[in-house]
Amino acid sequence: VVRLAQWAAETGIDLVPRGAGTGLCGGATPQNSVVVDSARLREIDVLNIQSKQVVVESGVPLDQLNLNLRSAGLFLPVIPGSHRSATIGGMIATNAAGLHAVRYGRMADWVEDVVIVNGKGQVQCLSGSARSNSTGWEGITGMIVQATLRLTERPGNRSLTLLPLENLRELLDQIDSLKTNPALSAMEYINPNAAVKVGWAAKHTLLVEYHSADGEIKDPEEMAIIWGARESLSARLTQAGYPISEDPQIPPEAQENILSWLTAQNIPVFGHIGVGILHPRFLPDDPRIPQLYRRVFAARGRISGEHGIGLKKRQWISDEMKAEVQILKKRFDPDCVFNRGKLC
């Protein structure tokens, strides 16, 4: 990777880091670029059970890592929808959130340090506050090659409750009280337009999981069926003609307004309502997508809660973010070797 970066700087050709290619905004899409695939960076180098930390290369898939950690009773609890194939490097680059974000937060909360090859062909270890120069920046500061990650104990007890409600306001009113339970581990929302795609009633539905016996459903097989339905939503909606997935992050005070608008437009929606990240699904080139963005901006939300900006949304980023990108590029990648044209 070092030699590639040096060659790219000399020739003016740009490099595009690639993990599993599960991103939805074009962050790993080449534009007459050389793609640097992390598929061979799959070593799980050091596991320290006492400190609950592991050193891994960037191409390690999340599910493979967690399978290897099972015997130690540990896991990395950031579980995006693409967890079967998503790589550690890609998850750091997008600052992934996912199904258990309401309890465990984002990838940045579990990264101790990151090793990158920057645009000058230098190997840098970013730790402490410097981690933020790589986490969530979609590879524009360099290619992630290794990371030290924090881990946590696997939950011993799990249960869940499924709450289908006719009234959206009633559902939203329950969220704050549900969040007071320290055993809460997931809070997923499915709107009526999406619920029917998995055979559920056409209602506003909350899927609430606990790392305790507080939920109504405790049978592992029944829980697996419900989670399987939730995790199948993306594929089912694609098959039903809604392939475009958005990921706005909406503040609580604006959720009723935006969700009511989406539901009235017959747009299927699901997502991590506990942290305000929603996944409305659209037809290709749907004119309601920019309408959604404008509503989110008006509500002081973010048009990307976890998918990233990439190529797809770069024309929508703020002047402040553009300025931040330029500062980072000047410091880490002055010749614009990595992910040229992404984010800005």
Summary keywords:
Uridine Diphospho-n-acetylenolpyruvylglucosamine Reductase, domain 3; 344 residues; 2 domains; alpha+beta
Task: Chart the SSEs and their pairings.
Layout (H helix, E strand, L loop, with lengths): L1 H10 L3 E4 L15 E4 L6 E5 L4 E5 L4 H8 L4 E2 L12 H7 L6 H4 L6 E8 L4 E5 L14 E9 L1 E2 L5 E7 L2 H12 L4 E7 L1 H4 L8 E7 L9 H20 L4 E2 L6 H13 L4 E4 L4 E6 L5 H11 L20 H14 L12
Parallel strand pairs: 1-2
Antiparallel strand pairs: 3-4, 4-8, 5-9, 6-7, 6-8, 10-12, 11-12, 11-14, 13-15, 14-15
Give the overall silhouette.
Answer: globular
State the order of secondary-structure elements, H for helix, E for strand.
Answer: HEEEEHEHHEEEEEHEHEHEHEEHH
Predict the CATH topology of the largest domain: Uridine Diphospho-n-acetylenolpyruvylglucosamine Reductase, domain 3
What is the CATH architecture annotation of the largest domain? 2-Layer Sandwich
- Count of helices? 10
Distance between the termini: 24 Å
- Strands, total number: 15
- Protein structure class: alpha+beta
- How many discrete structural domains? 2
Low-confidence stretches: none
Strand proportion: 15-25%
